[in-house]
Amino acid sequence: MDKNNALDAFAALSQPTRLDVFRLLIKAGEPGMSAGEISSTLDVRQNTMSANLSILSRAGLIRSTREGRSIRYFADMDGMRGLLAFLMEDCCGGQPELCQPVINELACSC
């Protein structure tokens, strides 16, 4: 991920609803959620949610697939990994042991 892509991702996540959507989709995991489920869970109107989902998608943080008349959304784990890797690219000045606590905190405990 380059600096411009990272800035796009940060801009997308800088709005409260979009941050909530991204975190919700990370929590949902592999099954993802339909746009209606996301709207209902977060109590956001569907047209507003559609705009937010579009911004997150363009930023490379979520992906979608069509299922008949509905669209299912998923956190784009490659996009998230890219953003985290960009942030930690030069972590700890060549002393990886200093980064280990951060890496441990990021690791899924499931």
UniProtKB/TrEMBL annotation:
SMART domains: HTH_ARSR (SM00418). Signal peptide: none annotated. It holds the Pfam family HTH_20. Coiled coil: none annotated. It comes from the Bacteria. Residues 1-95 form the HTH arsR-type domain. InterPro entries: ArsR-like_HTH, HTH_ArsR_DNA-bd_dom, Metal_resp_trans_reg, WH-like_DNA-bd_sf, WH_DNA-bd_sf. Keywords: DNA-binding, Transcription, Transcription regulation. GO terms for molecular function: DNA binding; DNA-binding transcription factor activity. This is Transcriptional regulator. It comes from Pacificitalea manganoxidans.
